[in-house]
Structures
1.
Amino acid sequence: MTIDPQQASAMLADVDSVVARVKQSRIYRRSGDIFIMWGALHVLRHVLFPLLPIFAQGGWVLLDLVGIAATLLMLRGAQGFGQRSGWRWIALYILFYGFGYVWSDVIGGMRERQLIAFWPTLFQFGYAVAGLWFGWAFLVIGLGAAGATVGAYLLWPSESYGLAITLINAGALVAAGLWMRRA
Amino acid sequence: MDAADEIIHQPVRLRIMAALTALPADDEGLDFVRLKSLTGATDGNLGAHIDHLTRAAYVEVSKAFVGRRPRTTVKVSPEGRAAFQRHVLFLKSIIAAG
């Protein structure tokens, strides 16, 4: 059997393309589980807020910490996920929350309606940015969910506005998670 | 290495081996449906190529039921992983020599 350099090069390109697709599919699958978990936490938070007053007094931090710990556990064992990556994820959350806190509590002076839309869109923007590295699905999810959140901010009546934002955010996370698991 | 691996050389089998070796050694492998989408092969064609690789002991096939649905999972063997790496090195050597 004789193979010329052009054929060899084409075969290696084929190999690289398949390997890239397998790796992306593994990222999507793992991220899908994480998205579904965060979607469930959002719904849980909305259910817990009215039932347990402690959750209305900043207890949401506890739920977020549970979410971050679960995310790190789910990422453990992922290909290329070492201790350094773990700290990077924690730093990423701190940066996002820090940025959000500065704008919502220190500089922004936002009203409640704006604040309710601000936090989900901040993280949805993060998903969209992640899409530039990890695949277009993140970009679509981030921009789609942010668009729906802004739409609800502009159009949804006040009485059920908080619930609508929670359902959009949680629904987008769960739907995106299920989609990514099948990708 | 100075010769191509005749079993892996075939394009669909090359893609199957590339997909399976992209997974860590302790991974459970890929299911038939996923392999079909990665290789672009038809059911019958993919099945025939997997049989070929199984006879060469390059892959291991396991069948199980998930709920009521049968699920076929294909995993690369240590021999298959080594053979694929040798074949890739061979292809790289052709490019380097050319």
2.
Amino acid sequence: MPTTEPELRPLGVDGILVRFARRLTSQANKSALDFRDRMQAADIAGITEVASSLVSVRVGFDPDVTTRQEVAQAIKAVLAVHETTVAGPKRLWRIPVAFGPAYAPQLEEAAALAGLTPAQAIAEIEAAIVRVMAIGFAPGQPYLGMLPDHWDIPRQSSLTESLPPGALITAVRQLIIWAADAPTGWRHIGQTAFRVYLPETSQPFAFTAGDAVQFHAVSDSAFRDIQGNNDTNGGATCEVLR
Amino acid sequence: MPQLTVHSAGPGVTVQDLGRPGWKAQGLSTGGAADPLALLEAAALLGSDPAQAVIEMMGFGGVFRLDAGTRIALTGAKMQADIDGEPITPNATHFLPAGATLTIGGAKQGVFGYFACAGGIITKPVMDSRATHLTAGIGKRLQAGDMLPIGEDPDRMRPPQKLTPEDRFSGGVIRVMPGPQTDFFAPATLALFAKTSFLRSPRGNRQGIRLDHEGGGFSTEGGLNQVSDLIVPGDIQMTGDGVPYVLLAECQTIGGYPRIGSVIPRDLPKIAQAAPGTKIRFQFLTVEEADATATSQGQTLRALEKMCQPMVRDPHDIADLLRYQLISGATRGDDLERP
């Protein structure tokens, strides 16, 4: 049972957002992914989209076929059913990261905001096994979480105009492997050579929501070797767990 | 297969269609034309499939030639255009002969202009769409030397059509519906937002446009710690310093900045087509009022088809009248009876 009732809110003239919490928690993320699966399985007429995010799911509908009221009722019916138990992650990714100053311009600043030294920050990131909580903003880009409480650091108020692809960035207890050509308010704390989106391949998206990810530090020179090696995706390995 | 050759192109010229819905959960926004209404107008004029791909031109057009004659239409932003030096009107069909030069200049009104061929552009689809999605690395900006395959004109003899679209180039009052985060803003902030006069900033592209105004920003309590959530085009996002951006077709799928509301799809073309400096104000609708404005693309297309009129050229408007063979076309008068 979720601790609070999910909120239903309009999101466009053809959509309802079902929001499970106003703060990111692992439980709210689990509820959202679980609701997404059950809503998709319910296969309701006039529903055009069931897309999940960190703590919410957008249910899109065709106003020519159904109405907001009917869709809201269908959502409530699915929510009334007890949640299934979600098993652990299906896959574990291990991804190398360079944390040298040239590759991590804001590591010191982010670590200070979390009350840590840079070395402590790196150790905590290496120790964390984070989950792909959502994919978005840019194609295939994962929102990974959650880091311990003291990583609840805000975004910067001014935007960083651009970041190299594969940048490891952080805010609000999460990590992102950056894949967008856009400004961001998240802080740049490391660099991977991992590509989350390979549009030219038959499987364009590396991650699936629910995957586990663990990062490990490599030296700057080892990182440059990884960058020069096209045989692997950024030196990452992917272990199938179940 | 007929080819369209790009002899020159402005910096924002891309192939677009109605986009690629259904990939939001993988982080790929629908994309497609920044002003989808212009694609429906072109389809209504040409009698073509609205799903066909066209050329979108942000701010400035280019020089194009075809190796097979086809009907064309220019919709969206009003851009100076001519065929071999003879000016052509927007929102009307024209015949572009093989080898003739179509020159499209800068936008005089609006931002996004569209050049549609009757048979559509038939480049290879990616994930069921031909739309260039620059932030997702699908397709690229067109440049001189590019050649694009186009479909045969299915109905070359269809009589020329014209259309007088509703003005959508002058900004004005834009209708907004509440979204999931509207109540994160204090009532006083919402009231101030609805009273404020904005100017379309020079900063803008297919992802979104920035709005400038006098006075402070529009912020929420704890706005910078907010959990990232799903976005739809039309959302009005407040960045860190409370500056509004209206998100367009190629926006990101998830974002963490608070969104005060969402421009209804019916009014979004007015945002896309507002040139820098255009005045904009926002009016909040209730959810019920907003839902009542929802119109499917099919309904819009049928309404536009009804608005199309046959184009009759007034000889007075033909600058080079004497160049035309006005009398040698005389016949014996029995053409229609002959087999």
3.
Amino acid sequence: MHLENISLNCFKNYSTLEVAFPKEINCFVGANGSGKTNLLDAIHYLSLTKSAFNIVDNQNIQHDKDYFSIRGNFRVNTKKYQVQCSLQLRQKKVVKLNQKPYEKISEHIGKFPLVLINPHDTDIIRGGGEGRRRFFDVIISQIDPAYLGNLMQYNHGLKQRNSLLKQFAESGNPDMDLIAPYDQIILDLGHKIHLERSRFVTKFVPIFEQHYKNLSEQKEHTSLHYTSELVQPDFDSRFRHNLQRDMALHRTGLGIHKDDYVFKIEDYPLKKFGSQGQQKSFVIALKLAQYDIIKDQKAFKPLLLLDDIFDKLDDFRIKKLMQMLGEHKFGQIFVTDARPERTRAIFESLKSDMDLFLIESGNIKRIE
Amino acid sequence: MQYPSKLIEDAVNEISQLPGIGKKTALRLVIHLLKQDKESTLHLSEALVNLRTQVKYCKVCHNISDEEVCNICSSHRRDHTVICVVENLPDLMAIENTAQYNGTYHILGGIISPIEGIGPDDLKIDSLIQRIKNRSNEVNEVILALSSTMEGDTTAFYLTKKLKDFDLKVSTIARGIPVGGELEYADEITLGRSILSRTAYLHG
């Protein structure tokens, strides 16, 4: 997959911008605040119909303007597509494919896939289980649309059950006939979701480990485990016996909504004992594995966006990552870096065909 | 919005309370009424007042009725051995319009949804049980015609539990492919369900 060009109007700090990307490797360099990441975000919009950084769409309109518009031309194998994403203030966001607006914007997601690696990604490791579940849920949903449907149904059933628990606790009079259907929904869908997650992790782990080994030259042993209460053979009866506790807490204490993915390094939790560099490598390996999984699923290469990742990695890891780039493991790549000389040196050593763009306060210039 | 008259403002405020009507539409309706002759507005308000003060609910099935017992429940031509349980009046009317059903109804007045604070006590479930108890040798089937949502299914499950001690058949309306629908456009869940609950062809 190749993004041939992009044009922006009133998007973040860009008034108007038109730029072509004939090459596979594209580097955006420039001072902090010049708009490098904003350009990546515009690409993110074309792929996923939303910003990677700010979920409030109208805050991505340039100050004092009342609309933004992003247009890009993609090439997938030999077919060409035009994608346009625009927002007029106080109106609904419009996404068009070849000039035809989508009725449901969500139908666009997954057609032009992209993987973004940026400095905030370590939140996956350092944050709560919710972020880790979301990371994997997003990937599994792309592979299996039924998974997302089951997950949404499950969450709805869970909300209903929790409201019921609260009412039971207040009245002190639980009605088993009333809670039984919710228990059944949560157990049935829970087992399906659990099975999908287990299957996915089995497929994901070897790809992930390969990437980590490559990035760290096998110095450290890492592991990624999917943990869930549902592996217990007596889970269903434990779930039902937990009712008194659930009532006291007004929420459902057991189920796949408590699942987690445990990341370890040399058998210690990465969250607590991993160095910044190790955590960074771990996250990059997670994202590269995500890239491979989507590539397999789509049978073409997604875009890869690397936002400001050289700052936190040591030279060895940077070299490893660049080697992978040089071996053409990826398709089209967009990289940002505040230090042009570093990027130029890294990519010149690869002798790759690349374009270097200098970004200065909302303007772009290709450097020869 | 600024109105030139308090009378207009009051009327707009009242009308815009109705579902689907905002302030602008309400204002258009108010201006329309002012353009018409006085009688038409009086007829409208009279009809509304009568609707609200004189409407009755059937004491058997809770259908809206002009009498104590609605014309379905009091009809000798209807089959009183079957009760079709529905959520609300529009659902009852939808089934009536099929002209395929000749039994009686029972309107629950909603479906169970703990998020919205609606439990069995807020619905006409006790009166359904009572109704069946009183006529236990008369009623032999209850059809649950509830929406195919999690809330509809939960309500159906609950009712099934409450009805299990009676000697009667409890059935639910079939879920599947709409008539005239093409298979390739059916969603997977509906199609999956219609395969699971497929029906045998009757020969002869």
